[in-house]
Amino acid sequence: MRRALRRLALKGEATTEEDCYPLFDCFALGTGRVASVATAALPFVVAHADDPDMGARATLVELLASLSKAVAEADPGLVDPGWHQTWQAQRPQIRALLANPLPEVRRQALPLGEGVGVLLEQWHAETDPTVRLTASCQLKPTVTQQRR
Q1: Tally of domains in the chain
Q2: Entry's InterPro entries (predicted)?
Q3: Does 71 fall in a domain?
């Protein structure tokens, strides 16, 4: 994990989507677990995703969304005890990704928008049609679930 994060930091603006793939592997998404190494690395991933001088930021935001989903689907006993506190500490930076100047970053950040209110707010504020469409698609299942 440390090596993958260091590579990204050293490449900076030249970071590509392919450079991020080892990081996805380090988080071991799909195992049903969230290890302590993931908790330790989370602030660094959020910082890179929020850094305007970092390349492949949309891919890093995609990783954050994948992590959020993995935690939601994992058995609580398989999630590192420090994860939730660390995630909450990063919430302001994560939420700021929804207002990022890059449409591809905003689009990838939509699943991180916790709740219908945030998605609806984003949908109303969004000027890029691709991000607005994605927000609309995510809103529909959420609104349908709330009606049940």
Answers
A1: 1
A2: ARM-type_fold (IPR016024)
A3: yes
Enter the pTM of the model: 0.82
Helix (H, G, I), strand (E, B) or coil at 50: helix
Residue at 52 is within a domain: yes
43 falls within a domain: yes
Contact between 39 and 83 under an 8 Å Cβ cutoff? The reply is yes
Identify any residues that bridge with 79 across adjacent strands, giving them in sequence order.
Answer: 34
pLDDT digits (tens, 9 = 90+) for 10-39: 999 999 999 999 999 988 888 888 999 999
Structure tokens at 74: 């994992």
Neighbours of 99 (CB within 10 A): 12
Q: What is the per-residue pLDDT for 146? A: 47
55, part of any domain? yes
Instruction: Find tokens 């492949």 and name the residue.
Output: 56
Query: One-letter amino acid identity for 103?
Result: P
Domain of residue 25 covers 2-97
Q: Is the pLDDT of residue 143 over 70?
A: no
What's the rounded Cα separation, in Å, for the pair 7 and 83?
Answer: 24
